[in-house]
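Example 3.2
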Amino acid sequence: MHAWPASEVPALPGQGRDLRIHDTATGGPVTLDPGPVARIYVCGITPYDATHIGHAATYNAFDLVQRVWLDTKRQVHYVQNVTDVDDPLLERAERDNIDWTALAEKETALFREDMTALRMLPPRQYIGAVEAIPGIVPLVERLRDLGAAYEVDGDIYFSVESDPHFGQVSHLDAAAMRLLSAERGGDPDRPGKKNPVDPMLWMAAREGEPSWDGASLGRGRPGWHIECVAIALDHLGMGFDVQGGGSDLVFPHHEMGASHAQVLTGEFPMAKAYVHAGMVALHGEKMSKSKGNLVFVSQLRREGVDPAAIRLALLAHHYRADWEWTDQVLQDAVTRLGHWRAAVSRPDGPPAEELVEEIRDALADDLDAPAALAAVDRWVVRQEESGGSDIGAPGVVSRAVDALLGVAL
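Structure, written as C-alpha coordinates:
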Protein backbone atom coordinates (compact mmCIF):
# COMPACT_ATOMS: atom_id res chain seq x y z
CA MET A 1 0.00 0.00 0.00
CA HIS A 2 1.34 3.43 -0.90
CA ALA A 3 1.19 6.57 1.25
CA TRP A 4 0.74 10.13 0.00
CA PRO A 5 3.25 12.59 -1.51
CA ALA A 6 5.50 14.51 0.84
CA SER A 7 5.50 18.28 0.91
CA GLU A 8 8.93 19.87 0.99
CA VAL A 9 10.18 20.83 4.45
CA PRO A 10 12.26 24.03 4.22
CA ALA A 11 15.68 23.96 5.86
CA LEU A 12 16.14 26.47 8.66
CA PRO A 13 19.32 28.01 10.03
CA GLY A 14 20.53 26.58 13.31
CA GLN A 15 19.20 23.40 14.87
CA GLY A 16 16.15 22.36 16.83
CA ARG A 17 15.91 21.01 20.37
CA ASP A 18 15.47 17.46 21.58
CA LEU A 19 11.82 16.70 22.20
CA ARG A 20 10.49 16.58 25.76
CA ILE A 21 7.11 14.87 25.63
CA HIS A 22 4.48 13.38 27.94
CA ASP A 23 4.73 9.60 28.25
CA THR A 24 1.48 7.88 29.18
CA ALA A 25 3.31 4.87 30.61
CA THR A 26 5.28 6.88 33.18
CA GLY A 27 2.69 9.60 33.59
CA GLY A 28 5.23 12.36 33.11
CA PRO A 29 7.61 14.02 30.67
CA VAL A 30 10.52 12.23 29.05
CA THR A 31 13.23 13.77 26.91
CA LEU A 32 13.69 11.69 23.79
CA ASP A 33 17.21 11.31 22.45
CA PRO A 34 16.91 9.12 19.36
CA GLY A 35 19.90 8.06 17.34
CA PRO A 36 20.50 9.37 13.83
CA VAL A 37 17.17 7.84 12.79
CA ALA A 38 14.16 8.51 15.03
CA ARG A 39 11.54 5.74 14.92
CA ILE A 40 7.80 6.29 15.32
CA TYR A 41 4.73 4.12 14.84
CA VAL A 42 1.28 5.73 14.68
CA CYS A 43 -1.90 3.70 14.52
CA GLY A 44 -3.90 4.47 11.41
CA ILE A 45 -7.53 4.53 10.40
CA THR A 46 -10.10 1.82 9.93
CA PRO A 47 -11.26 3.02 6.50
CA TYR A 48 -15.04 2.85 6.68
CA ASP A 49 -15.60 6.61 6.74
CA ALA A 50 -13.71 9.73 5.76
CA THR A 51 -11.15 11.63 7.81
CA HIS A 52 -12.85 13.62 10.56
CA ILE A 53 -11.37 16.45 12.60
CA GLY A 54 -10.55 14.08 15.46
CA HIS A 55 -8.40 12.00 13.12
CA ALA A 56 -6.77 15.12 11.74
CA ALA A 57 -5.93 16.38 15.23
CA THR A 58 -4.20 13.10 16.08
CA TYR A 59 -2.13 12.95 12.90
CA ASN A 60 -1.28 16.62 13.25
CA ALA A 61 0.28 15.90 16.65
CA PHE A 62 2.58 13.23 15.26
CA ASP A 63 3.37 15.32 12.23
CA LEU A 64 4.75 17.87 14.69
CA VAL A 65 6.88 15.15 16.29
CA GLN A 66 8.39 14.42 12.89
CA ARG A 67 9.03 18.09 12.20
CA VAL A 68 10.77 18.61 15.54
CA TRP A 69 13.02 15.63 14.83
CA LEU A 70 13.78 16.76 11.28
CA ASP A 71 14.77 20.15 12.69
CA THR A 72 17.36 18.38 14.86
CA LYS A 73 18.90 17.11 11.59
CA ARG A 74 17.77 13.54 12.23
CA GLN A 75 16.10 11.26 9.76
CA VAL A 76 12.66 9.96 10.71
CA HIS A 77 11.43 6.42 10.15
CA TYR A 78 7.66 6.74 10.43
CA VAL A 79 5.34 3.77 10.04
CA GLN A 80 1.55 3.84 9.95
CA ASN A 81 -0.98 1.06 9.43
CA VAL A 82 -4.43 0.86 7.90
CA THR A 83 -6.86 -1.56 9.53
CA ASP A 84 -8.39 -2.51 6.21
CA VAL A 85 -10.28 -5.52 7.54
CA ASP A 86 -12.23 -5.28 10.79
CA ASP A 87 -15.79 -5.66 12.07
CA PRO A 88 -16.79 -1.98 11.70
CA LEU A 89 -15.59 -1.96 8.09
CA LEU A 90 -17.48 -5.15 7.26
CA GLU A 91 -20.62 -3.86 8.98
CA ARG A 92 -20.53 -0.56 7.07
CA ALA A 93 -19.98 -2.37 3.77
CA GLU A 94 -22.99 -4.60 4.44
CA ARG A 95 -25.13 -1.62 5.45
CA ASP A 96 -24.26 0.28 2.27
CA ASN A 97 -24.36 -2.82 0.06
CA ILE A 98 -20.80 -2.30 -1.15
CA ASP A 99 -17.87 -4.69 -1.38
CA TRP A 100 -15.74 -4.27 1.73
CA THR A 101 -12.50 -4.06 -0.25
CA ALA A 102 -13.95 -1.33 -2.47
CA LEU A 103 -15.08 0.61 0.62
CA ALA A 104 -11.63 0.32 2.20
CA GLU A 105 -9.88 1.45 -0.99
CA LYS A 106 -12.25 4.39 -1.45
CA GLU A 107 -11.90 5.71 2.10
CA THR A 108 -8.15 5.13 2.21
CA ALA A 109 -7.79 7.14 -1.00
CA LEU A 110 -9.82 9.97 0.53
CA PHE A 111 -7.66 9.84 3.67
CA ARG A 112 -4.55 10.23 1.51
CA GLU A 113 -6.10 13.27 -0.19
CA ASP A 114 -6.90 14.84 3.18
CA MET A 115 -3.40 14.19 4.53
CA THR A 116 -1.85 15.70 1.40
CA ALA A 117 -4.05 18.80 1.65
CA LEU A 118 -3.15 19.25 5.32
CA ARG A 119 0.58 18.85 4.55
CA MET A 120 0.98 15.89 6.89
CA LEU A 121 4.34 14.25 6.25
CA PRO A 122 3.77 10.69 4.99
CA PRO A 123 5.04 7.53 6.63
CA ARG A 124 7.94 5.67 5.09
CA GLN A 125 5.82 2.52 5.24
CA TYR A 126 2.04 2.60 5.01
CA ILE A 127 0.87 -0.95 5.61
CA GLY A 128 -2.59 -2.49 5.43
CA ALA A 129 -3.62 -5.26 7.80
CA VAL A 130 -4.43 -7.52 4.86
CA GLU A 131 -0.96 -7.24 3.35
CA ALA A 132 0.56 -7.85 6.80
CA ILE A 133 -1.20 -11.20 7.34
CA PRO A 134 1.77 -13.32 6.14
CA GLY A 135 3.84 -11.73 8.90
CA ILE A 136 1.10 -11.93 11.52
CA VAL A 137 0.49 -15.67 11.33
CA PRO A 138 4.00 -16.71 12.49
CA LEU A 139 3.76 -14.34 15.45
CA VAL A 140 0.49 -15.87 16.62
CA GLU A 141 1.99 -19.33 16.20
CA ARG A 142 5.01 -18.27 18.25
CA LEU A 143 2.84 -16.89 21.04
CA ARG A 144 0.98 -20.17 21.11
CA ASP A 145 4.25 -22.11 21.23
CA LEU A 146 5.42 -19.92 24.12
CA GLY A 147 2.28 -20.79 26.07
CA ALA A 148 1.04 -17.21 25.81
CA ALA A 149 -1.95 -18.04 23.58
CA TYR A 150 -4.84 -20.46 23.82
CA GLU A 151 -7.89 -21.55 21.85
CA VAL A 152 -11.57 -20.95 22.50
CA ASP A 153 -13.84 -22.64 19.93
CA GLY A 154 -11.24 -22.23 17.17
CA ASP A 155 -10.38 -18.60 18.00
CA ILE A 156 -6.91 -17.88 19.39
CA TYR A 157 -6.56 -15.57 22.40
CA PHE A 158 -3.56 -13.94 24.05
CA SER A 159 -3.13 -14.50 27.77
CA VAL A 160 -2.35 -11.16 29.40
CA GLU A 161 -0.95 -13.05 32.39
CA SER A 162 1.98 -14.15 30.21
CA ASP A 163 3.44 -10.64 30.27
CA PRO A 164 4.81 -9.53 33.67
CA HIS A 165 4.65 -5.94 32.45
CA PHE A 166 0.98 -6.04 31.48
CA GLY A 167 -0.81 -2.92 32.71
CA GLN A 168 2.24 -0.66 32.69
CA VAL A 169 1.02 1.45 29.76
CA SER A 170 -2.47 2.33 31.02
CA HIS A 171 -2.17 1.61 34.78
CA LEU A 172 -5.87 0.78 34.93
CA ASP A 173 -7.48 -1.54 37.44
CA ALA A 174 -9.22 -4.75 36.40
CA ALA A 175 -12.70 -3.24 36.49
CA ALA A 176 -11.75 -0.33 34.24
CA MET A 177 -9.97 -2.67 31.83
CA ARG A 178 -13.02 -4.91 31.59
CA LEU A 179 -15.32 -1.96 30.94
CA LEU A 180 -13.10 -0.49 28.21
CA SER A 181 -12.56 -3.91 26.66
CA ALA A 182 -16.32 -4.26 26.21
CA GLU A 183 -16.61 -0.76 24.76
CA ARG A 184 -13.65 -1.06 22.38
CA GLY A 185 -13.99 -4.29 20.49
CA GLY A 186 -13.27 -6.90 23.17
CA ASP A 187 -15.46 -9.71 24.45
CA PRO A 188 -14.89 -9.89 28.22
CA ASP A 189 -18.01 -11.98 28.83
CA ARG A 190 -17.13 -14.81 26.46
CA PRO A 191 -17.06 -18.16 28.27
CA GLY A 192 -13.80 -20.12 28.17
CA LYS A 193 -11.42 -17.17 28.41
CA LYS A 194 -8.71 -17.28 31.06
CA ASN A 195 -9.01 -13.55 31.76
CA PRO A 196 -11.99 -11.45 30.65
CA VAL A 197 -9.73 -8.90 28.93
CA ASP A 198 -7.62 -11.43 27.01
CA PRO A 199 -7.68 -10.15 23.40
CA MET A 200 -8.18 -12.16 20.26
CA LEU A 201 -5.11 -12.88 18.15
CA TRP A 202 -6.75 -14.88 15.38
CA MET A 203 -10.45 -15.14 14.59
CA ALA A 204 -11.46 -18.40 12.97
CA ALA A 205 -13.28 -18.02 9.66
CA ARG A 206 -16.95 -17.02 9.90
CA GLU A 207 -19.46 -17.74 7.17
CA GLY A 208 -19.84 -14.82 4.81
CA GLU A 209 -16.77 -12.98 6.13
CA PRO A 210 -13.31 -12.71 4.56
CA SER A 211 -10.66 -15.12 5.77
CA TRP A 212 -7.09 -16.11 4.93
CA ASP A 213 -4.89 -19.15 5.26
CA GLY A 214 -3.47 -19.13 8.76
CA ALA A 215 -1.22 -22.19 8.36
CA SER A 216 -1.51 -24.17 11.62
CA LEU A 217 -4.04 -21.64 12.93
CA GLY A 218 -6.60 -22.55 10.26
CA ARG A 219 -8.43 -20.07 8.06
CA GLY A 220 -9.36 -16.78 9.67
CA ARG A 221 -8.25 -13.19 10.10
CA PRO A 222 -6.05 -11.36 12.61
CA GLY A 223 -7.05 -9.54 15.74
CA TRP A 224 -6.63 -5.79 15.98
CA HIS A 225 -3.60 -5.55 18.27
CA ILE A 226 -1.35 -8.19 16.73
CA GLU A 227 -1.72 -6.42 13.37
CA CYS A 228 0.10 -3.31 14.60
CA VAL A 229 2.68 -5.36 16.49
CA ALA A 230 3.64 -7.33 13.40
CA ILE A 231 4.01 -4.19 11.31
CA ALA A 232 5.94 -2.27 13.97
CA LEU A 233 8.37 -5.08 14.76
CA ASP A 234 8.95 -5.82 11.09
CA HIS A 235 9.80 -2.25 10.13
CA LEU A 236 11.03 -0.58 13.34
CA GLY A 237 12.12 -3.35 15.67
CA MET A 238 11.75 -3.34 19.43
CA GLY A 239 12.36 -0.29 21.59
CA PHE A 240 11.41 2.32 19.01
CA ASP A 241 11.05 5.92 20.12
CA VAL A 242 7.34 6.74 20.03
CA GLN A 243 4.14 4.72 19.88
CA GLY A 244 1.43 7.20 18.99
CA GLY A 245 -2.30 7.46 18.62
CA GLY A 246 -5.42 8.96 20.13
CA SER A 247 -6.05 8.69 23.86
CA ASP A 248 -8.81 6.17 23.15
CA LEU A 249 -6.09 3.72 22.11
CA VAL A 250 -4.29 3.62 25.47
CA PHE A 251 -6.43 0.64 26.46
CA PRO A 252 -6.83 -1.88 25.09
CA HIS A 253 -4.90 -1.29 21.89
CA HIS A 254 -1.55 0.03 23.05
CA GLU A 255 -1.56 -1.94 26.29
CA MET A 256 -2.20 -5.19 24.45
CA GLY A 257 0.22 -4.42 21.63
CA ALA A 258 2.99 -3.75 24.13
CA SER A 259 2.36 -7.06 25.86
CA HIS A 260 2.27 -9.00 22.59
CA ALA A 261 5.63 -7.55 21.55
CA GLN A 262 7.24 -7.96 24.95
CA VAL A 263 6.32 -11.64 25.18
CA LEU A 264 7.39 -12.28 21.59
CA THR A 265 10.81 -10.68 22.01
CA GLY A 266 11.52 -11.03 25.71
CA GLU A 267 12.42 -7.31 25.71
CA PHE A 268 10.90 -4.33 27.53
CA PRO A 269 9.56 -1.82 26.68
CA MET A 270 8.12 -1.98 23.19
CA ALA A 271 8.39 1.82 22.87
CA LYS A 272 10.39 4.43 24.77
CA ALA A 273 7.35 6.72 24.97
CA TYR A 274 3.61 6.17 24.57
CA VAL A 275 2.18 9.44 23.31
CA HIS A 276 -1.53 10.12 23.02
CA ALA A 277 -3.56 12.93 21.51
CA GLY A 278 -6.74 14.22 23.12
CA MET A 279 -10.25 13.81 21.80
CA VAL A 280 -12.21 16.37 19.79
CA ALA A 281 -15.88 16.92 20.61
CA LEU A 282 -18.81 18.29 18.65
CA HIS A 283 -21.96 19.53 20.39
CA GLY A 284 -20.65 18.34 23.75
CA GLU A 285 -19.81 14.76 22.79
CA LYS A 286 -16.61 13.14 21.58
CA MET A 287 -16.48 13.12 17.81
CA SER A 288 -16.81 9.48 16.76
CA LYS A 289 -18.01 7.39 13.86
CA SER A 290 -20.31 5.35 16.09
CA LYS A 291 -22.18 8.49 17.21
CA GLY A 292 -22.13 10.08 13.77
CA ASN A 293 -21.27 13.54 15.14
CA LEU A 294 -18.48 14.17 12.68
CA VAL A 295 -16.94 17.11 10.88
CA PHE A 296 -15.09 15.79 7.84
CA VAL A 297 -11.91 17.33 6.48
CA SER A 298 -13.01 16.51 2.93
CA GLN A 299 -16.35 18.26 3.41
CA LEU A 300 -14.64 21.39 4.74
CA ARG A 301 -12.35 21.35 1.71
CA ARG A 302 -15.31 20.97 -0.64
CA GLU A 303 -16.89 24.00 1.05
CA GLY A 304 -13.82 26.01 0.12
CA VAL A 305 -12.09 26.10 3.51
CA ASP A 306 -8.34 26.55 3.09
CA PRO A 307 -6.56 23.43 4.46
CA ALA A 308 -4.01 25.77 6.07
CA ALA A 309 -6.85 27.23 8.15
CA ILE A 310 -7.97 23.75 9.18
CA ARG A 311 -4.43 23.03 10.27
CA LEU A 312 -4.22 26.27 12.24
CA ALA A 313 -7.47 25.37 13.98
CA LEU A 314 -5.88 22.11 15.09
CA LEU A 315 -2.65 23.79 16.16
CA ALA A 316 -4.55 26.25 18.35
CA HIS A 317 -5.17 23.41 20.84
CA HIS A 318 -2.53 21.51 22.78
CA TYR A 319 -2.32 18.00 21.36
CA ARG A 320 -3.08 16.33 24.72
CA ALA A 321 -6.12 18.49 25.44
CA ASP A 322 -9.72 17.43 24.84
CA TRP A 323 -11.48 20.27 23.02
CA GLU A 324 -14.59 21.09 21.03
CA TRP A 325 -14.85 21.98 17.36
CA THR A 326 -17.06 24.99 16.69
CA ASP A 327 -17.65 27.42 13.86
CA GLN A 328 -15.79 30.01 15.93
CA VAL A 329 -12.69 27.80 16.17
CA LEU A 330 -12.55 27.66 12.39
CA GLN A 331 -13.29 31.37 11.95
CA ASP A 332 -10.49 32.27 14.36
CA ALA A 333 -8.11 30.13 12.32
CA VAL A 334 -9.21 31.75 9.05
CA THR A 335 -8.64 35.20 10.56
CA ARG A 336 -5.22 34.22 11.90
CA LEU A 337 -4.19 32.80 8.54
CA GLY A 338 -5.16 36.03 6.84
CA HIS A 339 -3.06 38.11 9.24
CA TRP A 340 -0.06 35.82 8.86
CA ARG A 341 -0.22 35.79 5.06
CA ALA A 342 -0.55 39.54 4.90
CA ALA A 343 2.48 39.90 7.17
CA VAL A 344 4.80 37.65 5.16
CA SER A 345 3.71 39.29 1.91
CA ARG A 346 5.23 42.62 3.00
CA PRO A 347 8.77 43.44 1.87
CA ASP A 348 10.32 43.64 5.34
CA GLY A 349 9.61 43.27 9.03
CA PRO A 350 11.09 42.91 12.50
CA PRO A 351 14.01 40.47 12.82
CA ALA A 352 12.76 36.89 12.84
CA GLU A 353 15.65 34.89 14.31
CA GLU A 354 14.28 35.14 17.84
CA LEU A 355 10.85 34.01 16.63
CA VAL A 356 12.33 30.88 15.08
CA GLU A 357 13.89 29.98 18.42
CA GLU A 358 10.61 30.67 20.24
CA ILE A 359 8.78 28.26 17.94
CA ARG A 360 11.49 25.65 18.45
CA ASP A 361 11.37 26.03 22.22
CA ALA A 362 7.58 25.76 22.30
CA LEU A 363 7.42 22.62 20.18
CA ALA A 364 10.28 20.94 22.05
CA ASP A 365 8.29 21.46 25.25
CA ASP A 366 5.66 18.74 24.78
CA LEU A 367 4.57 20.06 21.37
CA ASP A 368 3.17 23.33 22.74
CA ALA A 369 1.72 24.47 19.43
CA PRO A 370 -0.53 27.14 20.99
CA ALA A 371 2.58 28.83 22.40
CA ALA A 372 4.23 28.64 19.00
CA LEU A 373 1.20 30.26 17.36
CA ALA A 374 1.19 33.00 19.98
CA ALA A 375 4.85 33.75 19.20
CA VAL A 376 4.06 34.18 15.52
CA ASP A 377 1.07 36.36 16.41
CA ARG A 378 3.34 38.67 18.42
CA TRP A 379 5.74 39.02 15.48
CA VAL A 380 2.82 39.82 13.17
CA VAL A 381 1.51 42.47 15.57
CA ARG A 382 4.95 44.10 15.82
CA GLN A 383 5.14 44.23 12.05
CA GLU A 384 1.61 45.66 11.74
CA GLU A 385 2.22 48.32 14.41
CA SER A 386 5.79 49.45 13.74
CA GLY A 387 7.00 47.68 10.60
CA GLY A 388 10.65 46.74 10.43
CA SER A 389 13.73 47.05 8.32
CA ASP A 390 14.81 43.42 7.93
CA ILE A 391 14.05 42.57 4.31
CA GLY A 392 14.69 38.87 4.88
CA ALA A 393 12.42 38.51 7.92
CA PRO A 394 9.10 37.72 6.19
CA GLY A 395 10.77 34.92 4.23
CA VAL A 396 12.34 33.49 7.39
CA VAL A 397 8.96 33.52 9.14
CA SER A 398 7.24 31.88 6.17
CA ARG A 399 9.84 29.11 6.00
CA ALA A 400 9.79 28.53 9.77
CA VAL A 401 5.99 28.29 9.90
CA ASP A 402 6.08 25.84 7.00
CA ALA A 403 8.95 23.70 8.33
CA LEU A 404 7.91 23.55 11.99
CA LEU A 405 4.13 23.93 11.93
CA GLY A 406 3.29 22.56 8.49
CA VAL A 407 1.38 25.69 7.45
CA ALA A 408 2.13 27.06 3.98
CA LEU A 409 1.85 30.84 3.86
